[in-house]
Design brief:
heterodimer; A: 318 residues; Cyclophilin; 2 domains; B: 224 residues; seven-stranded mixed beta sheet; four-stranded antiparallel beta sheet; 13 strands
């Protein structure tokens, strides 16, 4: 490709953990490969809808501080989802951008994604397609197993993000959405719930836990009251799913997130319900979590409601 | 053969085959795993076999717990269904630089290193499951006198290729990861190959592993 025909972003600053993500890869747990995929699926879905992209198009996910990108090529639109502060730097000046709105970028313009404010993950994409390689049907980068485009590594300075296709029939759209917060994280009791003393079972639901800095795409470590194991601090290693809350030998909860190890040997006290996962991953280190017990039937209904809410939001895009 | 099916959260079936760890129970898990995998049921997003459990993750938009549980309960698997097994030979170098925990193992087992290694290399091992990180095989069973607990304090980084033992099991670290197994050596062989998308794992559940000992020169030769 001749350089003047190229459309691409150059990364001036990579941000803290910036990767390509899509819906992730299925049916690979048995060989040790987790789903990966965008942590916050609702914001992923909203972004591709706003940009009229295919529902599983690759997007750029960032955490805390995002990338600073400089654009080279013909006119293009971009959009950001999540609770994100960013600046758009053009020849005319610098403006503050709003999430869930599409903006035009011309050759030489820059987007500086400063912060995900009081949340963790944000998403960036364009009305088109990034040039990514697919591994097991997904372009999601899993940095732990080094799977995905960019050799499975997070973005670094000076990397160039190729755009292989721009949707020319695109019309600019927006959504009025201010995110969704949640008071309690709802869980279903786990398969090893009876490994813990009655006292600790009660504490688990009555007290709040603090999210520690040892939290990333693999897992979220919590601290607070120690959960007392009265049976065995280990189980025979078995499969895990995202949202599972294990209790370590030290008595601390650890929640499995999208890039988690597929097998684990700590007892499972509970599992976060699917409806609350997107909001769970957006909780920042230092904030508190309180768990609420719900039944399986309620969890299934709550998931349907959550999906309906997402679809409602998508229908409000104009 | 499945004793009980519970839910793990709201989007996974937890199929319990028993509480013991042995090759008979595990072979049943693996048979179910391959059988269900072949059925290619819509909305199944993952199957995770382990020693005595099979976890079936599903898309909540397509299945609910009760309907999928019924489907799985109705699956019939013939007891004499044969497992497809491969014999895989894996070279291991036990040079001092690689046998990170040999002294600890000597002390705990009260055996000389040469005896430990001789015992280790004299057996074939069965692959119970793969996972934790991509491609890592969980193998067994070690002889009774070869069994010891994991390290009191796990290593922050276990080198890629490390071959370790704990309790009745051995494994191979397919990636550099944190871990607490007692490391006896290192294999130059690639255990996980992401460029081989149809079969990235060298070892799969049900396979038999034969380790053989190599010198440092041979190790370096294979690595090259």
């Amino acid at each position: 490709m001749k350089s003047k025909d190229r459309n691409y972003f150059k990364i001036l600053r990579a941000g803290i953990n910036t990767t390509y993500q899509d819906l992730g890869r299925n049916n690979l747990y048995h060989i040790g490969i987790p789903f990966s995929g965008a942590m916050d699926k609702r914001n992923f879905q909203l972004l591709n809808s706003l940009l009229q992209n295919d529902y599983n198009s690759p997007v750029i996910e960032f955490a805390y501080q995002g990338p600073h990108l400089k654009y080279f090529g013909k006119d293009i639109f971009f959009c950001i989802s999540g609770n994100v502060s960013f600046k758009i730097i053009t020849k005319e000046g610098v403006i503050d951008g709003n999430s869930y709105q599409c903006y035009l970028l011309k050759n030489g313009d820059e987007v500086d994604i400063r912060s995900t404010n009081k949340s963790v993950y944000g998403y960036f994409s364009i009305n088109g397609t990034f040039g990514v390689d697919y591994y097991w049907g997904s372009c999601s980068i899993n940095t732990q197993a080094q799977i995905g485009p960019n050799n499975g590594n997070k973005f670094s300075k000076d990397l160039e993000i190729e755009i292989i296709d721009i949707n020319n029939s695109f019309n600019k759209r927006k959504l009025d959405y201010f995110g969704s917060t949640i008071e309690n994280i709802r869980v279903i009791k786990g398969t090893n719930y009876d490994y813990f003393s009655e006292f600790s079972q009660n504490k688990f639901f009555k007290e709040s836990f603090k999210i520690t800095k040892l939290s990333d795409r693999m897992g979220m470590r919590l601290e607070g009251t120690k959960i007392e194991n009265i049976v065995d601090p280990n189980i025979k290693s078995e499969g895990l799913v995202k949202g599972v809350i294990q209790i370590t030998s030290a008595g601390d909860p650890i929640i499995m997130l999208s890039d988690h190890g597929t097998i684990g040997g700590y007892p499972k006290i509970a599992t976060v319900i699917s409806a609350d996962y997107d909001r769970l991953v957006q909780l920042t280190p230092g904030s508190n979590i309180k768990f609420k017990d719900v039944s399986l039937e309620d969890a299934e209904t709550l998931y349907k409601l959550y999906q309906m809410e997402t679809n409602n939001l998508i229908s409000q895009i104009k | 053969m499945i004793k009980n099916i519970l839910n793990l959260g709201d989007a996974a079936l937890y199929c319990d085959f028993g509480s013991d760890v042995n090759q008979e129970i595990n072979s049943n898990v693996i048979k179910y795993f391959y059988h269900i995998k072949k059925l290619n049921l819509k909305g199944i997003t993952n199957l995770t076999p382990s020693y005595n459990k099979l976890i079936i993750s599903y898309d909540l938009n397509i299945h609910s717990f009760l309907s999928l549980k019924k489907k799985i309960e109705n699956i019939e698997i013939k007891e004499n269904n044969k497992l497809e097994k491969n014999l895989i030979e894996i070279p291991v170098c036990c040079d001092n630089d690689f046998a990170l925990d040999i002294e600890r193992v000597e002390n705990k087992l009260k055996l000389k290193s040469e005896i430990i290694l001789e015992k280790f290399f004299s057996k074939n091992y069965f692959c119970y499951m793969t996972g934790f990180v991509a491609g890592m095989p969980f193998l067994g069973d070690l002889d009774q006198e070869m069994r010891l607990k994991r390290l009191e304090t796990p290593r922050v980084k276990v080198p890629k290729g490390s071959v370790g033992i704990t309790e009745q099991f051995c494994n191979i670290y397919s990636f550099e990861t944190p871990g607490g197994w007692n490391i006896l050596g290192n294999t130059p062989q690639n255990i996980f190959d992401s460029s081989n998308q149809s079969n990235p794992n060298l070892v799969n559940p049900g396979d038999t592993i034969k380790f053989y000992r190599i010198t440092l020169d041979q190790y370096n030769e294979i690595k090259r």
